[in-house]
């Protein structure tokens, strides 16, 4: 007879496995860790999750996370370049760019990317609000900061076509060699992009 976890634990593992980045073994390890936590830590974790679910909403302008009774610090910061707009896929991408310190404009979170296989269409993303913001902010440049996979490229092309009538500058993040990398660790596509995106040093 095959022994398995009780049904309640199996349901917990199934829920954990559905989280991004967690496979069966990771979900099982996390389940064991959770079950061995003291009751007050479980309660604290549960309360924090519920509080975040209740209080955190997307900013109606840029789409980054804000508290429901608060203002967006990014959109309301007068020091930011108001006519420079960076389009990203998810709210977490905003923090990645912010931590680099390289961008001082505004952001627009799409909430995903085009994916016909997953039935994600332009209507499922924040495309219409992007067009309105470009117009209302008198945007001079839109930087498309999406991945270079098939879905990312398709989404970038769609945005470029959508915004082209506005007559503004539409740019794409440079792609190529990683910092500190050398040629023997670089795949052919990255090398191709690095060659075509090379810059003048003179």
Description:
- This protein is of the alpha/beta class.
- It is 41% helix and 13% strand.
- The strands form two sheets. The protein has a four-stranded parallel sheet. Strands 1-2 form a two-stranded antiparallel ribbon.
- α1 (7-17) crosses α2.
- The longest helix is centred in the first third of the chain and has 17 residues, at 39-55.
- It is globular and about 65 Å long.
- The relative contact order is 0.08.
Task: Fill in the keyword field for this structure.
41% helix, two-stranded antiparallel ribbon, 6 strands, four-stranded parallel beta sheet, Helicase, Ruva Protein, domain 3, 202 residues, alpha/beta, Dna Topoisomerase Vi A Subunit, Chain: A, domain 2, globular, single chain, 13% strand, 2 domains
Layout of strands and helices, then pairs:
Elements: H1 7-17, H2 24-35, H3 39-55, E1 56-58, E2 65-67, E3 81-88, H4 91-100, E4 105-109, H5 127-136, E5 141-144, H6 150-163, E6 169-172, H7 188-196
Parallel strand pairs: 3-4, 3-5, 5-6
Antiparallel strand pairs: 1-2
Helix pairs in contact: 1-2
Shape verdict = globular
Q: Enumerate the strands of the largest sheet in spatial order, edge to edge or round the barrel.
A: 4-3-5-6
Averaging pLDDT over every residue, what do you get? Answer: 90
Instruction: State the name of the first-level CATH class of the largest domain.
Output: Alpha Beta
Order of helices and strands: HHHEEEHEHEHEH
Integer-rounded radius of gyration: 21 Å
Helix count, DSSP H or I runs of 4 or more residues: 7
- Give the fraction of residues assigned to helices: 40-55%
CATH architecture assignment name of the largest domain: 3-Layer(aba) Sandwich
The count of domains is 2
**What does the main sheet amount to?**
4 strands, parallel
First-to-last CA distance? 74 Å
